[in-house]
Design a protein that fits this description.
The complex is a heterodimer of chains A (233) and B (367). Chain A has 233 residues and is mostly helical. Chain A is 76% helix and 0% strand. Chain A contains eleven helices and no strands. Chain B is an alpha+beta fold. Chain B has a six-stranded mixed β-sheet with strand order 7-8-9-3-10-11, with helices on both faces. A five-stranded antiparallel β-sheet of chain B has the order 2-1-4-5-6, with helices on one face. A five-stranded antiparallel β-sheet of chain B has the order 14-13-12-15-21. In chain B, α3 runs antiparallel to α4 and α4 packs parallel to α5. The two termini of chain B are 31 Å apart. The chains are: A mainly alpha (233), B alpha+beta (367).
């Protein structure tokens, strides 16, 4: 990374934040698309319940979500214990930060994707079916491309949320410099220490720049997709 | 194609809310029109053939291949039916180019490819869409979209082509673009076509057989000229716009610049012919009942060009009190609408010889 006067812990926090946000977004995409599909198209018992559970991280205090993750996925957690015996450890690890960030961004992602699925004209899928395409093929060649703008929007929202996640992360994996300390955690640490204003401002600038870049990138992608779909751009 | 099986053999029942559709149709090759007012169940029947709707009971077979048979618990999903469906709104895939749209069904039809199967290039040439291959649907006009939708269905090598009001959303000029392709398809491709419309002009121009639908049921099946001469079907065939459809062969122009059309009812002269009709070609002409005058003796000293002798074989009172008279003219039927007063004055009754004076002939202008 170019030396802009960042200290080693700051560089580590920036790199970790990017890594956490990217992994959180990528890992949340497949289940995000699946859940959005189930909510938009599914007719099954418990759909409203699933909708409620998906939205919980949005309405619960982040500390509660983080504590829930600790109970579930911590070293002694219901799922964390069997997983750690397989060598998959979330507690006090960057993977845990990614998990917390992913969970927090999940409802935003699902909402955006769900809207885009509901906007896909099922008549086009029917037409593809009459041309001989089996349902899975129709999904891959018609539904998925047409809902791409929503998938992109959902991914960017989740990425931005993951980049700024603080409460659930610090509760679940703490704020260990070089290990689980993300940008938000580093800024928080600076604001808690005397004379940390300059450092906090530096990282705030980085945070703003990264979020803006993500937003601009998504706008450019959305324009490109929009042009491909023949909409006005 | 020479099979003994009917192109389409359908006998189904379906209830949708309070709307009940019940139909039994056997149609031969060529173009079968499902005709009737909106809400008569035409589109439902097409959706049943395509597998987009499921019948409560019944069976459908195309060219002898069963697609659904509730008694045998047989149900083929739409993608295994090999029906080419041309929707009214074209339904092109917006994220694909015209070429990709055309070839979308090709992969699934690969096992049915024959040496004489249409190719992307041959279909593009036939439909005049070769210059559009690299465009996206959003950049096409309505007529172009309709032609791409037709080409896409053809390239999927269907057993039957289903067309649900493919021209309804188009203006007259765009319709004129597409009608010749449909005629060519009907006459040369050997592909049965099931065609939904409520436009008499399309029936006159395209139909081999007409299935008259009304309130979810089949009222009548027959050739256009037979059905359009039946007074009992006039509520469907046109009401005040009712008229006979006559098959005609184009003859040679005479010295006065008039064109002769030979119909079973006699020779009819017209001042203009659409460009697509040359000597010897077949067409149908429509003679509106309100444009036919009746006379009880051979008329003389009239400016009318076309006078056809005939015999009254049916008189029916219409809802507005006027009489619709059917004349048998050499085996073909002509309809004339006259007022009650005139009917009484001429004492019109079945068996009476009359002369029909045809004031106007509607000939499909290729538009």
């Amino acid at each position: 990374m170019i030396d802009l006067g960042f200290g080693p812990d700051e560089v580590a926090a920036i790199q970790l934040s990017l890594k956490v946000a990217i992994w959180a977004t990528l890992a949340a995409l497949p289940p995000g698309i699946a859940v959005a599909l189930a909510l938009a198209r599914g007719r099954f018992w418990g759909r409203d319940l699933l909708n409620g559970v998906v939205h919980l991280p949005l309405i619960l205090p982040p500390v509660v979500t983080g504590y829930g993750l600790l109970l579930l996925m911590g070293r002694q957690g219901w799922l964390g214990k069997p997983l750690s015996s397989l060598g998959i450890v979330f507690a006090f690890n960057w993977t845990g930060a990614a998990l917390a960030a992913g969970v927090m961004g999940f409802p935003l992602m699902v909402r955006a994707i769900r809207l885009s699925i509901e906007a896909v004209d099922t008549k086009l899928e029917q037409a593809a079916g009459t041309l001989g395409a089996p349902p899975l093929w129709v999904f891959a060649t018609v539904t998925l491309p047409l809902m791409l703008p929503g998938v992109l929007a959902g991914a960017v929202l989740a990425f931005a949320k993951a980049l700024g996640e603080f409460g659930a992360t610090i509760t679940f994996v703490s704020n260990i410099p070089g290990r689980t300390q993300t940008l938000s955690g580093a800024i928080y640490t600076y604001t808690q220490s005397p004379g940390g204003d300059a450092g906090a401002l530096r990282l705030v600038a980085v945070s703003v720049a990264l979020s803006l870049m993500a937003l601009l990138l998504s706008e450019a992608l959305a324009r490109k997709v929009g042009r491909r779909l023949g909409g006005v751009s | 194609m020479g099979q003994a099986a009917a192109a389409l053999d359908l006998d189904i029942a379906l209830r949708q809310g309070t709307f009940q559709v019940e139909a039994k149709i056997t149609a031969g090759p060529g173009l079968t029109v499902l005709f009737g007012p909106s809400g008569s169940g035409k589109s439902t029947l097409v959706d049943l053939v395509a597998g987009l709707k499921r019948p409560d009971r019944g069976r459908i077979a195309v060219d002898g291949v069963p697609l659904v048979d509730t008694a045998a618990s047989l149900w083929l999903p739409p993608h295994r039916r090999r029906v080419g469906y041309v929707f009214q709104e074209a339904r092109l895939l917006p994220h694909l180019t015209v070429r990709q749209n055309l070839l979308y069904g090709r992969w699934f039809a690969r096992r049915h490819l024959a040496p004489d199967s249409p190719t992307c290039d041959s279909v593009a040439d036939l439909l005049g869409i070769a210059p559009l291959l690299n465009r996206r649907p959003a950049a096409l006009s309505g007529g172009e979209k309709a032609r791409v939708a037709l080409g896409r269905a053809l390239l999927a090598l269907p057993r039957i082509l289903l067309m649900d009001e493919p021209l309804a959303a188009l203006d007259e000029a765009r319709k004129a673009e597409i009608l010749p392709y449909l005629e060519r398809l009907r006459d040369h491709a050997g592909l049965p076509i099931l065609y939904v419309t409520h436009a008499v002009a399309e029936v006159a121009r395209l139909a081999t057989t007409v299935v008259m639908m009304d309130q979810g049921r089949v009222r009548a099946i027959g050739t256009p000229s037979t059905l359009w001469s039946r007074p009992d079907l006039m509520d469907l065939t046109g009401g005040t716009e009712a008229g006979a459809l006559l098959d005609a062969v184009v003859g040679l122009a005479n010295g006065d610049g008039l064109f002769a059309l030979d119909t079973p009812a006699g020779r009819i002269l017209v001042p203009h012919l659409p460009a697509h009709l040359g000597p010897g070609s077949r067409t149908r002409l429509r003679i509106p009942a309100r444009d036919v005058l009746l006379s009880d003796r051979p008329p003389q000293g009239l400016s009318a060009l076309n006078v056809l002798p005939g015999m009254v074989d049916d008189v029916r009172e219409d809802a507005d009190g006027s009489r619709v008279v059917r004349l048998d003219c050499g085996g073909a039927s002509l309809l004339a609408r006259v007022t009650r007063t005139s009917a009484t004055a001429l004492a019109i009754a079945p068996g009476q010889p009359l002369w029909a004076i045809v004031k106007a002939v509607a000939l499909d202008q290729g538009s």
